[in-house]
Design a protein that fits this description.
The chain has 128 residues and is α+β, with helices and mostly antiparallel strands. The chain contains two helices and five strands, in the order H-E-E-E-E-E-H. The strands form two sheets. It has a three-stranded antiparallel sheet. The model is unreliable at 1-20 (pLDDT under 50).
Amino acid sequence: MLGIQRPKRHNASRPIRASSQTLEVYRWLYRDPVVPAAGTRARKGVAMLEKDVQLDIHLSEDDSDTIAYAVLNLRGDHFEAVGKARRNPMDPPMPVIGEELAIARAMQSLTVEVMEAAQSKVELFLVS
């Protein structure tokens, strides 16, 4: 599955040991206070924090090539990905197909980057 290994499960009978430096990193990564406020919904008595995340995609095209640049900033992490599509010279020009392929490829690459970042955070904080 995309070369990503599943993290080891934590044994609940063994406490997680974390250094003060690890805890500081954790506090920095999750510095947004989870306080019910405007934009929250309650589900079975639990407040849900809602957040908008911006994903920027820039397209660059010529007669045969389309390139999509995707940029995502998420809680201080910066992710970038590129997707490319090339039209066969024998095919009729249909820019929408190249755009969709390039965007899909950039998003697929971005997915791998975000999953790897999440996996490394899980390993850093939960796996001893």
